[in-house]
Amino acid sequence: MADAKEKPVDKLTFEEALAELEIIVRQLEAGEVELEKSIAIYERGAALKAHCESRLKSAELKVEQIVQGANGPTTESANFD
């Protein structure tokens, strides 16, 4: 995981970040990596999670703007739950 060809987290698309995060979770759950490497990939996983959350929040805000633009001002937000 932590090698020279890794893209910086902020350059990943949502889909790329999520796919990499899923791989990290599987590796950690399976106990496939040594302690030092597991710490490094856990750290990258935390950064990937934050990146995904940020991208999702941005998408939610865009959808709310689109909904408001199409329907005029609204007092309720789009429900994503």
Automatic annotation (TrEMBL):
Cellular component, GO, one term: exodeoxyribonuclease VII complex
Enzyme class: hydrolase
EC number: 3.1.11.6
GO biological process, one term: DNA catabolic process
Record carries keyword Cytoplasm: yes
Pfam families documented for this protein: Exonuc_VII_S
The protein's name: Exodeoxyribonuclease VII small subunit
Organism field: hydrothermal vent metagenome
